[in-house]
Design brief:
By secondary structure, the protein is an alpha/beta fold. The protein contains 12 helices and 5 strands. The chain has a 5-stranded parallel β-sheet, sandwiched between helices. Helix 2 packs parallel to helix 11. The structure holds adenosine-5'-triphosphate and magnesium ion. The site of magnesium ion has 3 residues, from loops.
Length: 307
Amino acid sequence: MKLNKEVLDEMRIEPGEPARLAKRSTKHVAADWLVHPDKDGKKDHQRKKVAEEDLQEFSDELSTAQELLWANGTYSLLIVLQAMDAAGKDGTIKHVMSGVNPQGCRVEAFKQPSNEELNHDFLWRCSKVLPELGVISIFNRSYYEDVLVTRVHPNLLTKAHEMPDEGPNEKFWNNRFTDINAFEHHLHRSNTRIVKVFLHVSKDEQKRRFMSRLDDPVKNWKFSLADLAERKHWDEYQSAYEEALSSTSTKWAPWYVVPADHKYALRALVGGIIVDAIDQMGLTPPEVRTESLEALERAKVELLAEK
Ligand code: ATP
Ligand code: MG
């Protein structure tokens, strides 16, 4: 099963176009996102069921697609996940990747940088763990934090090597966008396909999720006071995201804005985006050469001859 092209187009930020986050729904996509006509026109609770079935189908497709990626060893896939707190990054990774062979898939999470990391350029720690050919890597946060959280809290930039004496100015941020675009273009030319996903959650929904973390003892551990502090900077984060996404959605590394208020839809949509990215590689099962086929025949004869 494939995600509708219109849905992919709707979620993708066109290169050179503003992201217009404030205008984008956090609840649903406008285009019909399910490709089975028989399931269309259903109500919300039915949509949830359909989305769950779809997620299962995307997971199955992804599992096959990943096997092809691994067997061919000609491309790698980098999935960058960015979002506000409690938007559902962890759950998305868990659900989307369930069923994928762990040998060919890695998840890398980027938290506050260490001193060693701060002593390097901002792309260093991410470039060390890029996927090799045949592998899918998911970046749970990424080098984009260096144009997001640092933009909201410029005091985090004390060690930024390229910063002008007067502090971060427009040129400083634009240079970072230019460097990110060049870095990603370089990766693309080296057969790393890049898909970037922003989980677009509303402020109300974030509050609901924080409340449920506070109310439910089983979820208490997920709540962090730091998240509440960051929530106070909501608008600043939205404008940092607006500018970063608008400046770095390119033909070779597009951004997708995925409505994240409904977890079931979010997960299925992300699954669909990843399946589409692998699909575009046009992979086919590697052909076994005639000599190898003969060797396989001989191996079969040998095994059958065993007593
Ligand atoms: P979870 O809360 O689900 O465990 P998380 O990604 O929010 O996942 P945290 O440890 O809560 O993990 O937060 C990581 C923090 O590190 C975030 O606030 C993020 O903004 C911050 N961070 C990541 N990269 C950088 C960076 N380059 N510079 C400064 N802060 C960063
Ligand atoms: Mg957190």
